[in-house]
């Protein structure tokens, strides 16, 4: 009996497949692919756009202003949806494709799903070289799309129309796999997009996907139980994987029952509210004095859903050399780091099984009491630095506190690069789980506004994204203010104007180097001048207000909550005053220099390296 087929172009078949993929969120079946961000060029406008136009009411297409930012918006959407729903970012060939490579790096680093679809050169090579084609004399199979191989979990180039039948399910499976989760890239040769092919009807059958929950190995779990039972000062590090596993309540209940303080990574911030009884603050370079003090004393560290990057570990200086690690992670690579006892499995399921196997064991009560005391001291320090003063220019800490006072419980704070991350990781007191997004795995300048747009799409009726960024980042990528106004997705944007790249200037100065090429006053410019960010935002259709004082900012936050579109607030912020930090960071410092300040910084760097735990 002949199989039933449907004759479609490859582009039409790809789009029909995407439309028939579903997932379940809180018991409701929803499209797995919620929409497409696209900028059309000659490499995709005649075939892919034809297919997308026909289904625009089912699979909406949103026009971006820049391929990088629209892919970043897709990432912000995926984060807000906790990797349960995916957006597509589609570009033409050449610069449209390579613009998305940076965004792919963000998704790859942060283990986030996004489907990247780019046009490609002709499979038959007949018209080569086509416009925007980069030729490699020794290998004509290479195009700029090969650059995505370094920053994607799944990569394919479609040269024959039937190849998508096997390729697309693999791409989806990779994006939903909790261990391999990351961006998938598919390059579409221009002539292949147009080709008609008899696709099996079964390929288009509605499919409901779910995120698998791998259970831990029994022997490894038993080892973890025995090691944890030896602990006198155990500590839990909650990473981003806690949220993606929907394990927030499970981890909190386990910690409370066992008397274990919980500290958070940058990606893990927001798994617990600031005032949760077991919460002891953020850890590491952007961390709190409370979390870092606990880490220095901890004898057994239970790392859940974290890749243990240097900003979490203080370049591996914040822990005792004698401390033992248990790492719960779906990714074997992450679980095995730094000689940890690797328990490979889903965070929620593994913690539940660990809890069930622990019997009546609890950590000594004095340990949790100490954590609460240290966290109380940290909160007092926050109050000291965040309290308004009569200074002409407010600090970041004061601005963060003012914005926090005006934020609703379900508003989502978004930050990424510059001076904002350190100040919000330390100073933003999370009011509700899942309302904090600081992209710092890739520390991508430009993520903020794009992610705000994506998060606004994801959070229909559930609060407003509040984007905080500096003037340097604003100047780098601001066009999604316009995108959000065009599409009707509101966000509140806070621009902290401190005259350039202030936080990297801080690092430069700290390592003995005079201010150079970071703050505008230290750059090779004819004359530094201030941009009127409020007027610029207004020119893109946003509402805007320039704030002169903290009181102005608080009033403007109240106003911004009442507006009907993206609203931008700007305020001049101090470039030299920061929340204190007590963790070390290993960065390169010149081994030889005639500058005494650099020599002193080098000696301090050697001190830092002498503290590092030995490991891989």
Automatic annotation (TrEMBL):
Protein name: 3D-(3,5/4)-trihydroxycyclohexane-1,2-dione acylhydrolase (Decyclizing)
Taxonomic classification: Bacteria, Pseudomonadati, Pseudomonadota, Alphaproteobacteria, Hyphomicrobiales
The protein's Enzyme Commission number: 3.7.1.22
InterPro entries per the UniProt record, alphabetical: DHS-like_NAD/FAD-binding_dom, Myo_inos_IolD, THDP-binding, Thiamin_PyroP_enz_cen_dom, Thiamin_PyroP_enz_TPP-bd_dom, TPP_enz, TPP_enzyme_TPP-bd
Thiamine pyrophosphate enzyme central domain: residues covered: 221-354
Underlying gene: iolD
Keyword DNA repair: no
UniProtKB keywords: Hydrolase, Thiamine pyrophosphate
Disordered: annotated span: 596-616
GO MF annotation terms: 3D-(3,5/4)-trihydroxycyclohexane-1,2-dione hydrolase activity
């Amino acid at each position: 009996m002949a199989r039933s087929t449907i004759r479609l172009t490859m582009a039409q078949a790809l789009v029909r497949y995407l439309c028939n993929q579903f997932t379940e969120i809180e018991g409701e079946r929803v499209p797995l692919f919620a929409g497409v961000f696209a900028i059309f060029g000659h490499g995709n406008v005649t075939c892919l756009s034809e297919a997308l136009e026909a289904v625009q009411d089912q699979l909406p297409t949103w026009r971006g202003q820049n391929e990088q930012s629209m892919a970043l918006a897709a990432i912000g959407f995926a984060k807000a949806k906790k990797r349960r729903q995916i957006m597509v970012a589609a570009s033409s060939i050449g610069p449209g494709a390579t613009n998305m490579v940076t965004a792919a790096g963000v998704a790859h680093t942060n283990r986030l799903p996004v489907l990247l679809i780019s046009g490609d050169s002709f499979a038959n090579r007949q018209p080569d070289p086509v416009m925007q084609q980069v030729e490699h004399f020794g290998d004509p199979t290479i195009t700029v799309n090969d650059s995505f191989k370094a920053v994607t979990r799944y990569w394919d180039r479609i040269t024959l129309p039937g190849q998508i039948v096997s390729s697309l399910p693999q791409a989806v499976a990779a994006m939903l796999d909790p261990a391999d989760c990351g961006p998938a890239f598919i390059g579409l040769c221009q002539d292949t997009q147009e080709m008609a092919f008899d696709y099996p009807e079964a390929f288009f059958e509605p499919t409901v996907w779910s995120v698998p929950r791998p259970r831990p190995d029994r022997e490894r779990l038993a080892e973890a139980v025995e090691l944890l039972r030896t602990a006198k000062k155990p500590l839990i590090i909650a990473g981003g994987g806690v949220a993606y596993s929907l394990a927030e309540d499970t981890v909190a209940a386990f910690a409370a029952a066992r008397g274990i303080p919980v500290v958070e990574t940058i990606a893990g911030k927001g798994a617990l509210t600031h005032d949760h009884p077991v919460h002891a603050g953020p850890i590491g370079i952007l961390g709190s004095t409370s979390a870092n003090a606990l880490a220095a004393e901890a004898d057994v560290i239970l790392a859940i859903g974290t890749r243990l990057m240097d900003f979490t570990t203080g370049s591996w200086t914040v822990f005792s050399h004698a401390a033992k690690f248990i790492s719960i992670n779906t990714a074997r690579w992450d679980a095995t780091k730094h000689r940890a006892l690797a328990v490979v499995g889903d965070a929620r399921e593994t913690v539940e099984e660990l809890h069930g196997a622990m019997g009546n064991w609890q950590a000594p009560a004095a340990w949790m009491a100490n954590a609460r005391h240290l966290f109380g001291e940290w909160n007092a320090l926050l109050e000291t630095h965040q309290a308004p003063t009569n200074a002409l220019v407010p600090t970041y800490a004061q601005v963060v506190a003012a914005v926090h006072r005006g934020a609703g419980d379900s508003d989502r704070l978004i930050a990424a690069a510059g001076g904002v991350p350190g100040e919000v990781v330390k100073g933003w007191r999370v009011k509700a789980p899942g309302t904090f997004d600081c992209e710092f795995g890739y520390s991508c300048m430009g993520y903020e506004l794009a992610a705000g747009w994506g998060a606004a799409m994801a959070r229909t009726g559930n609060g407003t994204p509040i984007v905080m960024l500096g003037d340097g980042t604003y100047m780098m990528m601001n066009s999604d203010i316009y995108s959000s106004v065009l599409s009707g997705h509101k966000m509140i944007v806070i621009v902290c104007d401190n005259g350039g790249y202030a936080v990297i200037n801080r690092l430069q100065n700290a390592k003995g180097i005079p201010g150079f090429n970071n703050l505008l006053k230290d750059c090779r410019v004819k004359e530094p001048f201030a941009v009127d960010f409020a007027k610029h935002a207004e020119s893109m259709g946003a509402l805007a207000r320039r704030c002169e004082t903290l009181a102005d900012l608080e009033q403007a936050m109240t106003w911004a909550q009442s507006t009907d579109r993206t609203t931008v607030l700007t305020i001049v912020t101090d470039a030299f005053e920061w929340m204190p930090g007590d963790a070390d960071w290993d960065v390169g410092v010149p081994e030889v220099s005639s500058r005494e300040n650099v020599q002193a910084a080098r000696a301090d760097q050697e001190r830092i390296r002498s503290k590092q735990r030995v490991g891989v």
